[in-house]
Structure formats: structure tokens, C-alpha cells
Amino acid sequence: MSTDDIILSVCANCGKGEEDSDKLKACTTCKVVKYCNRECQIAHRPQHKKECREREAELHNEKLFAEPPSQHGDCPICFLRLPSLRTGYRYKSCCGKDVCSGCYHAPVYDNQGNEVDNKKCAHCRTPWPSDDEEATEREKKRMKVNDPKAIFNIGSYYARGIRGFPKDMDKALELYHRAGDHGFADAYNSIDYAYENGEGVEVDKKKATHYYELAAMGGNEVARFNLGNTEGRAGNMDIALKHYIIAVGCGENQSLKQIQQFYRYGHATKDEYMKALQLYQEYLGEIKSKQRDEAAAAYEDDWFRYY
Fold first, then answer.
1. 273 lies in a domain?
2. Is residue 90 part of a domain?
3. Is residue 304 part of a domain?
4. Full domain range(s) for residue 164
5. Can you tell me the distance from the alpha carbon of 9 to that of 26, in angstroms, rounded to the nearest whole number?
6. SS (H, E, C) 3-62
7. In this structure, is residue 62 part of a structural domain?
8. pLDDT tens-place string over residues 24-79
């Protein structure tokens, strides 16, 4: 048995052990020390407070700077990574899938090899909705099965007062929270914007930062970039650089420009700048598709629509 095992199997306050160490309750903040009961935890708090806060900060930073999950995932048709730019993919309210622009705009041919006018979902082959009203009805159905993007979209309609929804920030924030709870990190970015700018809530910079962090940890590259900007303005260049490098790996090209500036003014090393360039090139390689390039050229004026 190691020293750590002995420490974790006794109460940090009274030193008493338990025949079954699982009966000891770990500190809910740092998870390091254990106690017989709440009374022992309260009695030990003055001694443990500083260590506990330091460990809490360590755990938070480990989580904050861990490799984030892919927020956008892969296209279900070509299986290539979806780009971070929203103009590079379409959310389909019929099946709840994100389809890349290349697959969305790809021509469809009949069995004679003739191109046909095909207005169906590239994934599930459901006909396109005839108008915004039909698309919204589909999103309402998707919301009932807890599709986080449908929940987020309808929250956005409430926030803006469009598509027949009254402008209602309370309802919008409720739906943003629900979408975030179901794994859609972009929703947290909308919540932090609300607290940052007082949209439907009182301005609260601390809460704004909290939701920026939740969005960043969930893979939202814009939130990660904004955290880098915040740390940079505060003079915390090392922390800002960490955020920018993670954002670059998620395809956020403004972060690459910031790292270039950091290198120019001595806040980043050549190796750090080269690492950022490599990460961005890897990202571009993962999303590159001739079909997507052709779609971008043919539909450069085709504004993004959810359906």
C-alpha cells in the first residue's frame, strides 16, 4: 500500500480510518482529502482552505486547457471534418444532421447519367421545406426529441423576435441553457454574450467568463479566441497563447494572426508559432474537398440558412 493510499483511507481531520474506506467522504472541491463526516470537514476547513483552492484551480485549468471535443464533427455523407465557418455546412431540420456545403450542393444524376433538379436533403432525402414556416415546424419536432441545435435555433428566434416568435430573452436564455446541457457548446457562447452585453440579464463579467469557458471546453473556437483576447488584454500572455493555440487547432484563423503578432513582439517563440502554423495546416487538410471548393465558388453569394 502506498503513502497516498494510506492518506486517502483516513480522515484528514481526526486521523481515524474506516474498515470500508469507501464510507469516507471526499472533499467535493479538490477530491484529494476525505472525512468521517461533515463535522470533521468543517473542523478541518481552516487548515485545508488554501490547499483546496490551489487544487481546485489546478483541476479547473486541466479541464480548461484539455483537448476539446470536435464541436462540428464530420459530414455524415463524405465523412470529412466539417469546417468551423458556419457557411461551410448546413443544419438539416428534417434529420437533425449537419451536411457540408460540398455534399449539400453536389449535383444529383439519374440512372442515365443526366443531372436532375433535386431538392431533397442530401442525407435523408426528405424534400426541402417550402418556406421558413415549414422549416420551423420541423425544428419544433426536432426540439421535442431534444435535438440541441433545434433547441438552440428556436432560442435564437426568440432572442431576435423572428419566424413568428415574440422577442423574449428569458425564453431564449432558457433554451440556450437547455441546448448547452444537451452538448451544444455554441449555446453557451450565446449565454456569455448576453451576460457580457446585458442582453436580457444584468451585465455580469464573471458569469460571462464562466460561459465563455464552458463554450470553449465544449469545442467552440470563437469562445476560445475571446478567452485569449481577454487574457491578452489582462497581460497574461502565456495563458492567452494557450487559448490561441487550441483555437487554431479548431480552425479559428484569427487566432493564428494573434500568435503571429505574439511572435513578432516576443510573446511567443518561433517553435510556438511554427506549432500553430502546423495545427492550422492540419485543420485545412482535414476539411479540404474539391467538392466543397466547387460549392464555395458556385454559391459564394448563397447566405447560410439553417434548413
1. yes
2. yes
3. no
4. 131-219
5. 10
6. HHHHHHCECCCCCCECCCHHHCEECCCCCCCEECCHHHHHHHHHHHHHHHHHHHHHHHHH
7. no
8. 888 888 888 888 888 998 899 888 888 888 888 888 889 999 999 888 899 999 99
